[in-house]
Amino acid sequence: MTSTILRMLPFFIPLLIIQYGLMIFALVQVAKNEVAYLPKWAWILIIVLFGVIGPIVFLIIGKKKETEDD
Fold first, then answer.
1. What is the per-residue pLDDT across 10-69, written as a single tens digit (0 to 9) for each?
2. pTM assigned to the model
3. N or C terminus: which one in the chain shows less Cβ crowding within 10 Å?
């Protein structure tokens, strides 16, 4: 069993780096920007609790769209 885990390690380390990088990026975006549909604390919970899916959902629907004033 240990040899299987060691063989899979080169695959899992990049995935973990991507997951945590995406999570940190989304949390910074929540802190810096206005959010849509839910309060900031709810988006933080979604981002942290739902792994890769939470940050992706936030980045797709949770960020308020930038409005341009001409």
1. 889 999 999 999 999 999 999 999 999 999 999 999 999 998 999 999 999 998 777 655
2. 0.80
3. C
Distance CA 23, CA 47 (A): 6
Q: What is the 3-state secondary structure (H, E, C) of the chain?
A: CHHHHHHHHHHHHHHHHHHHHHHHHHHHHHHHCCECCCCHHHHHHHHHHCCCHHHHHHHHHHECCCCCCC
* CA geometry: angle 12, 28, 18, nearest 5 deg: 15
Q: Counting Cβ atoms within 10 Å, is residue 32 exposed (0-12), middle (13-18) or buried (19+)? A: exposed
Classify each residue of 50-67 as buried b or exposed e, where b means 16 or more C-beta atoms within 10 Å of its C-beta. Answer: eeeebbeebeeebbeeee
